[in-house]
Amino acid sequence: MHYTSTRNNTVQVTAAQAIAGGISPEGGLYVPTEFPRLTAADIDSLVPLNYKERATRILSRYLTDFTVEETAECCTAAYGDRFDTPAIAPLHDMGDGRYVMELWHGPTCAFKDMALQILPHLMRVSVGKTNPDEQIVILVATSGDTGKAALEGFRDAPNTKILVFYPVDGVSEMQRFQMITQEGNNVGVCAIRGNFDDAQTGVKAIFTDNEVKEKLAENGMRFSSANSINWGRLVPQIVYYISAYSDLVAQNKIQNGDAINVVVPTGNFGNILACYYAKCMGLPVNKLICASNQNRVLTDFFETGVYDCNRPFFTTTSPSMDILVSSNLERLLYHLSGNNSDEIAALMSALQTEKKYTVSDKVREAVQSQFVGGSADDTRVADTIRTIFEQNDYLCDTHTAVAMAVYEDYRTNTGDTTPTVIASTASPFKFAPAILDALGGAEADKPYEQLEELKVKTDWNIPQPLGSLRDKVIRFTDVCDNDKTGMQSTVYRMLHLD
Ligand SMILES: *Cc1c(COP(=O)(O)O)cnc(C)c1O
Q: What is the number of the ligand 1 atom nearest to the C-alpha of 266?
């Protein structure tokens, strides 16, 4: 099985080349040229397996240049004992056809761990197959959760350095503490002046800059990416949708073959795209419901076929979804255009020059037949958190609450009662101030006291990785400008190349 580029479909690379490289040289994203078939019998055979065994089965179908032993070893390292529940991604039954898929039981309490715990292992195997003598430099732009999860996944990984940029005012206190106290000998963290899109644009510019690449090459180094533009980030996310479906079958909540809906709180479009890929394989998914916060570029896109970033950027209580440019949408459009890389290259160039593009009628209709968009603002999110806590005794974080609210609207508007999996993407303790506000107001004003307050108020336990932060030492305090010069000199300094 091979991978090609969304902007040049004559490219042909293996999974190892796609994962070690991160992004295609002309700026496109790697996509599979075909989808492995998942039959009802395949699902039956997954039902009795545990998460890491299911992951090995599914990933082997995509990583055809890895041996099954290599894939199994990666899955064991990632999903063996680093999560706080053996289920890894447990389903919480809300009792009314809603199943919350909790993706935040990993070491940083956010769904990014699902992929970033395994990516370093996939990367190690991939680099071993492609460029065994090179040192890999992982550059990350983060809206909060990716940075910490990537730092934790890659810390002290052999032959690897990891550098993380985050928007100085765009992450929560807890997220910031998690990053600036990161341990490990191969890590660097820097704040940038600007928002997440500035950070992502800056990282992409450095990533594709020939002068920078040459400088690294002279020193035996090469960039790769841990953002969800990397195929190695995306492919592990396909697993939990198939695993959740297998769990529903195992628990007799559905029959194998029944359709489900899936709701995903969306930012960069990686998580929901993984569900689309599971659907392409044959997983019986009816509607893919894409939930946005007040930055509702995607909601408008699903309605109109026009992707337009010329609009105000809002800082919300769900910062990991404060994104105007959802990079992974490019992959969806590539598939729905009938693998037309010229069409996609033209759209992406329009996005760069006009911050806007309009897809063809064919693509718009294909999108609308499978996806539904919806958005919820901060007030609605707070109401949703409070109502669900009062009525269902269930605590959800701000991102998950966006999904809950959008799903409520969908169900009201359509009357569709198909069993529905709702992706829950962060522990509520990661966003304690907003959760406390939603539940009636915080009394404490220090992050650690707020954790305690939330615990007392809800009778939920503080996850260990957050509770232990208060004893950690602050290591990273740099702030740089978000232009290329600022970020480039920071990269050189962190790599000791200046
Ligand atoms: C990253 C993130 C999202 C958005 O996921 P995408 O794959 O970027 O769409 C949603 N919620 C949380 C908590 C996240 O960390």
A: 9
pLDDT band at residue 401 using 50, 70 and 90 as cut-offs: very high
E strand spans, 70-177: 91-93, 98-102, 135-141, 160-167
Query: What is the value of pTM for the model shown?
Result: 0.94
For 102-110, what is the mean pLDDT?
A: 95
* pLDDT tens-digit readout, 129-158: 998 889 999 999 887 788 999 999 999 988
From the list 101, 98, 86, 85, the residue with the least C-alpha distance to 49 is 86
| Element spanning 4, H or E | strand 3-5
Q: Given a cut of 80, is residue 306 above it in pLDDT?
A: yes
Which of 105, 196, 89 is CA-nearest to residue 144? 196
Question: Hey, what amino acid is at 308?
Answer: D
Strands, sheet with 479-480, edge to edge from the N-terminal-most edge strand = 221-225, 135-141, 160-167, 187-192, 479-480
pLDDT tens track for 310-343: 999 998 999 889 989 999 999 999 999 999 999 9
pLDDT-derived band at 384, boundaries 50, 70, 90: very high
Ligand 1 binding pocket (C-beta < 6 A) is 110-112, 145, 228, 265-271, 320-321, 399, 425-426
- Write the single-letter amino acid at 157: A
* pLDDT: which is higher, 482 or 312: 312
Q: How far is CA 173 from CA 145, 218, 268, 432, 466, in A?
A: 12, 38, 22, 10, 12
The sign of the torsion formed by the CA atoms of 245, 251, 252, 253 equals: negative
- DSSP assignment of 38-77 equals --HHHHHHHTTS-HHHHHHHHHHHH-TTS-HHHHHHHHHH
Selection from 410, 454, 408, 403 nearest residue 424 by Cα: 403
Q: Which atom of ligand 1 is nearest to the CA of 267?
A: 9
Quote the ligand 1 centre to 475 CA distance (angstroms): 26
Inform me whether the pLDDT recorded for 200 exceeds 90.
Answer: no
Q: ∠ at Cα 28 (27, 29), nearest 5°?
A: 125
Ligand 1 center–CA 144 separation, angstroms = 9
- Select from 425, 427, 431 the residue to mutate for testing ligand 1; criterion: most ligand atoms less than 8 Å from CB: 425
Ligand 1: which atom is nearest the Cα of residue 397?
13
Q: What is the whole-number distance in angstroms between the Cα of residue 153 and the centre of ligand 1?
A: 17
Residue nearest to atom 8 of ligand 1 (CA): 268
Q: Do residues 230 and 207 make contact, with C-beta atoms less than 8 angstroms apart?
A: no
Q: Which tokens is 315 given?
A: 């800082």
